[in-house]
Amino acid sequence: MTHIVAPQPIIALIAGVLILVMPRLLNFIVAIYLIIIGITGLIH
After folding, report:
1. Which residues contact 36 (CB under 8 A, 6 or more apart)?
2. What is the model's pTM?
3. Are 31 and 9 in contact (CB under 8 A)?
4. Which H helix or E strand runs over 36?
5. Rounded Cα–Cα distance for residues 6 and 44 (Å)
6. What are 9-43's pLDDT values in tens digits?
7. At what angle do helices 7-21 and 26-43 cross, to 10 degrees?
8. Cα 5 from Cα 15, distance rounded (Å)
9. Nearest Cα to 11, choosing from 2, 44, 40, 43?
10. What does the alpha-carbon distance between residue 3 and residue 38 come to, in Å, rounded to a whole number?
11. Quick one: DSSP state of residue 41?
């Protein structure tokens, strides 16, 4: 039996690191994250 890790904490961690390294990415990361969450919410 495999353990499936929820993608949201991993995405949040990667986004946090990228924002610390390149603060200009904040708008793009937030927008992409919201779009992905919205699409997955509509599909499920």
Report:
1. 11
2. 0.50
3. no
4. helix 26-43
5. 15
6. 887 888 788 888 888 878 887 888 888 888 888 88
7. 170
8. 17
9. 40
10. 25
11. H
